[in-house]
Design goal:
Pyruvate-ferredoxin Oxidoreductase, domain 3; 4 domains; seven-stranded mixed sheet; binds coenzyme A
Length: 573
């Protein structure tokens, strides 16, 4: 018996595909189920193929899975785009009569539902998706009362007429499905009760983490797929006296972030690859002037405009080395929605302690995924604030200290006036170009990062440490690929294959000794990552003695567990 059920809803952007999937998600979460969703938007602003996939289970879910069990196709394009995964054992629910007549592959159970026709008969064509939702709730036991509640919640701001129209369409869909003879075996296990969880997207979780960390100023320029972070923070930051600015571009936003940091505020921006590329010079300014700041990069398909709504992990080279000169920074990455909360708090704590830029790498898959997350307790996250001058003696902003970290002084502090500058400077902040000083100041700025590795939880080893003889394959993964590898390892172990995982979150400075320790217990190493050049593999080869087999993927979509399983078996055969 499958332990989980995956439903994919697909159709034309504007037909309410995303809303339909989101409502199924909410209803399943209210039934105490784990959910892991993914969605794809069209690059066009209106129209184009939209898809929403929700995987539900009683067990913890760490990725969207290999495919789907049920496809609900609103149109012919949705059928064609998923046709290759409509294999024996899957189910198709489709609009009939609609704009297509599907050839039903052998072994696929098909349920025709007159979604468009029923909606038109009700003179409410927009409600086509609600007819579909009603049919799905009957066919797959999606909790109907929860669905009725979420329909009201979702549409009440659009007025009672819309709410009632959609509820009527929902009931119509249920009636239509009741006439069908169910021959498949898929049912949502709705026997549970709601847990103390929230359903959040990766972007919303980054925003929540920033609020928990105490962000004061958020300046950003909208860019897919990062914009939702600002949207989320904007709803909460002003309530606590914080400031959110939509800047005129990314250079302005990072500059405003640094200005706010100089003024003593915890500040951040969120962007995607193209925006991070524009921030290079100011990231150097942040390192040179030792200003704490957090820059979230939600990676998308690159280079250039690339694939704005698709997934990649291809900004690691940029995150670590973007910008001229020897410009240091800390680079972190996140695995899943829950991690987005915790790692954003960690990013702020590190920025405040080490007075430097911290880049947090999320990705398109996470941005658009929603997951059930145990409701976080904000008080359970220890917070770090920048070291501030105690007002004694003469103040030198860049005083050489044993740790390399020099106390900061907010503007207006008596005796604390200083210049924060991008020009090379002496301990007092005044310009100074001597070779001795530049050497000393670079040694200071890089020296303070030497304790970062100890300040971040060590990379997780998934499986017993063992020794070379106990583990055939070690899989190194980062970002949301970790969740895919977790499931692949579970499947491989079930087949008796000795394999374990290594999941670093701190990517720069690279925790070399942790990589070496893990590599020493594996006979072979595989490093899957969603970019063309194998970017983390490049750094692992450059900075450690390890020689992992790079497994790059760049199709704008994430790995699936099956892809990892197959690749490991290839290595072993
Ligand atoms: N009755 C009334 N309204 C309904 C409805 C119904 N039965 N079903 C959905 N809607 C509304 C939704 O509430 C939503 O309205 P809102 O935007 O005010 O919340 C709207 O119709 C869209 O529905 P939704 O389900 O959210 O999305 P969709 O599946 O129709 O897909 C998108 C539309 C999301 C693809 C499209 O709106 C979009 O975002 N395009 C931009 C994509 C993009 O960012 N491209 C990259 C640019 S760089």
């Amino acid at each position: 018996m499958k332990k989980d059920l995956t439903i994919r809803v697909a159709g034309e952007g504007g037909e309410g595909v995303i809303s339909t999937g989101d409502m199924i998600t909410q209803a399943c979460a209210r039934a105490g189920l784990e959910v892991y969703t993914s969605k794809t938007f069209p690059a066009e602003i209106k129209g184009g193929y939209a898809r929403y996939q929700v995987r539900t289970s009683r067990q913890k879910l760490t990725n969207p899975g290999d495919g789907f069990d049920v496809l609900c196709a609103f149109n012919g394009e949705a059928f064609e785009m998923s046709r290759h995964r409509l294999v024996a054992g899957t189910v198709l629910v489709y609009d009939c009569p609609g704009d297509f007549t599907p050839e039903i592959p052998a072994g696929v159970v098909a349920y025709p539902v007159p979604m468009s026709e029923a909606a038109k008969e009700m003179r409410n064509p927009r409600a086509k998706n609600m007819v579909a939702l009603g049919a799905l709730s009957v066919l797959f036991n999606i909790p109907e009362n929860s669905l009725r509640e979420v329909i009201v919640t979702k549409f009440k701001r659009k007025g009672e007429e819309i709410v009632q129209g959609n509820l009527t369409a929902f009931e119509k869909g249920r009636e239509l499905a009741a006439t069908l003879i169910k021959t498949d075996g898929y049912l949502v296990d709705a026997s549970g009760t709601a847990k103390d969880v929230i359903v959040l997207s990766g972007n919303q979780a980054v925003g929540l983490g920033a609020l928990i960390a105490g962000v004061d100023v958020f300046s950003a320029y909208p860019i897919t797929p990062a914009t939702e972070i600002a949207n989320y923070v904007s709803r909460h930051l002003p309530k606590r006296g914080g400031t959110l600015i939509q800047a005129e571009d990314e250079i302005a936003s990072i500059s405003q972030v640094l200005g706010a940091s100089y003024a003593g505020k915890k500040s951040m921006t969120a962007t995607s690859g193209p925006g991070l590329a524009l921030m290079g010079e100011m990231l150097g300014m942040a390192f040179m002037s030792e200003l704490p700041c957090v820059v979230v990069d939600v990676q998308r398909g690159g280079p250039s405009t690339g694939l704005p709504t698709k997934h990649e992990q291809s900004d690691l080279f940029l995150a670590i080395h973007g910008g001229h000169g020897d410009a240091g920074r800390i680079v972190l990455s996140v695995e899943d929605v829950e991690d987005c909360i915790a790692m954003t708090v960690t990013a702020f704590n590190l920025a405040e302690k080490y007075q430097c830029p911290v880049i947090l790498l999320s990705d398109g898959s996470l941005a658009f995924s929603t997951q059930t997350v145990p409701t976080p307790n904000p008080d359970s996250f220890p917070l770090v604030n920048r070291e501030r001058w105690n007002g004694e003696g003469t103040y030198h902003r860049y005083a050489l200290t044993a740790s390399g970290i020099s106390p900061m002084a907010d503007p207006g502090t008596p005796g604390g006036a200083h210049i924060a500058t991008g020009i090379e400077h002496g301990e007092n902040g005044q310009p100074c170009y001597t070779p001795v000083n530049h050497e000393a100041m670079q040694a200071k700025r890089f020296g303070k990062l030497k304790t970062v590795i100890a300040d971040v939880a060590p990379a997780e080893v998934d499986g017993e440490v063992g020794d070379k003889n106990t583990s055939d394959i070690g899989i190194i993964a980062w970002g949301s690929t970790i969740g895919v590898v977790r499931e692949a390892i579970t499947r491989l172990r079930a087949e008796g294959i000795r394999v374990k995982g290594f999941y670093p979150k701190l990517l720069h400075p690279l925790p070399v000794s942790q990589f070496e320790a893990f590599g020493a217990t594996c006979s072979r190493l595989l490093l899957p990552e969603v970019n063309f050049q194998g970017q983390l593999a490049h750094f692992v080869r450059a900075e450690t003695s390890l020689r992992p087999t790079s497994f790059p993927l760049c199709g704008g979509l994430p790995f699936t567990p099956a892809m990892i399983v197959n690749r490991v078996k290839e290595m072993l055969s």
